[in-house]
Write a structure and sequence with these properties.
Elements lengths: L8 H18 L1 H20 L3 H31 L5 H34 L2
Helix pairs in contact: 1-2, 2-3, 3-4
Length: 122
């Protein structure tokens, strides 16, 4: 059995925070997504939409960050396992990047729907 299996919650949490810290320090896109998330939180605090909008916006923002972290993990793993150029690895990385793009488009769709709702009024 792997030494990573069935570890206490605090140990798994430390691993997750370590991975998050690595992604923030190593990946410009992760930092950009965090900056966008901070801006989104500020907009939510200023506009004070209904709780359902908070949930939709936060869920879509979290999805973008999660996809960005998975993209980073896939890139790191692919580079470690196959450091030379490979068309197959390039396709894997492109698909992971496409997942981030789709999540971003979904989050923009939520933002557009919220904007339309706020412009219409109650």
């Amino acid at each position: 059995m792997s030494r990573w299996k069935n570890r206490p919650f605090t140990a798994r949490l430390r691993c997750a925070l370590h991975g998050f810290a690595h992604a923030v320090s190593a990946e410009q896109n992760v930092r950009l997504q965090l900056l966008a998330f901070a801006a989104v939180l500020l907009v939510l605090l200023v506009l004070r939409p209904a709780p359902l909008w908070w949930a939709l916006v936060l869920l879509s923002s979290a999805s973008v960050l999660a996809c960005e972290l998975l993209n980073t993990a896939i890139e790191q793993l692919a580079d470690a396992l196959h450091p030379s150029d490979s068309e197959a690895i390039g396709t894997v990385k492109d698909c992971a990047a496409a997942a981030v793009l789709i999540a971003c488009l979904g989050a923009l769709g939520v933002a557009a729907a919220l904007a339309m709702q706020l412009l219409r009024g109650p």
